[in-house]
Amino acid sequence: MMYTPKVEVEKRKDKDQLMQYALFLLGQRDYFSAKMYDKLRSYAQDNKDAQSVLDYMIELNYINDERTLENKVRFISEGGSKGPTRIRQELIEKGAPSAMVSEALSAIDSEVWRSNCFDLYRTRYKIDWDTYKERDKRLRYLVNRGFSYQDAKDAVSTSLDDYCDS
C-alpha cells in the first residue's frame, strides 16, 4: 500500500463569509484590530476584503482597541499574579499598540503592583527563607512574573510574620 500525504484544501472566504467569521470570533472574546486583521487575512481570498471587513467592524465599534486594552489590563491586574512588565509583553504580543499599553499600565497606581507582588509572595511562600540561594530563587520568581526588582526585593526582605500583623 502506497502512502499518500493529506493535502489540505484551502478554505478561502469571500467578503460575506469573512464578515460572519469576524462576528463569530468577536462573539468568543474581544480582539485587537491587528490580531483580527491577521485572522481575517489568513482566510480571505483577497487582503482588500480582510481590510474592508476590519474597517467596517471598527466603524460599527465592534472592534475597539482602547476598550479591549482597558478590559484586559483591568482583568489581568486584578488577578494579581502578573506584574506590569509581563502584562505589557503579553498585550503587545496580542497586537495591542505599545503606546496605548504603556499609557494604560501607567494609569494603574504603583501601590497596586506592590500590593500584588506582596500578595503573590505571601501566597506562594509560607515560611521565611534561610539561605541566600533560597532568597535569590524567590526574587527570580517574582521578577519573572513581571514585577519590578525593587518590589520583589521589598517583598522578599519583609518577614512573613510582618504580613500577618498587617
Features:
single chain; 166 residues; mainly alpha; Arc Repressor Mutant, subunit A; 3 domains; 69% helix; elongated
- pLDDT below 50 for ≥5 consecutive residues: which ranges? 5-9
Largest sheet geometry: none
Distance between the termini: 73 Å
Following the backbone from N to C, one meets helices and strands in this order, namely: HHHHHHHHHH
Instruction: Round the Cα radius of gyration to an integer and report it.
Output: 22 Å
Overall structural class, as computed from helix and strand content, comes to mainly alpha
Strand content: under 5%
How many domains in all? 3
Query: Helicity level, as a percent range?
Result: 55-70%
Number of strands: 0
- The count of helical stretches stands at 10
Quick one: overall form? Answer: elongated
- Mean pLDDT over all positions: 85
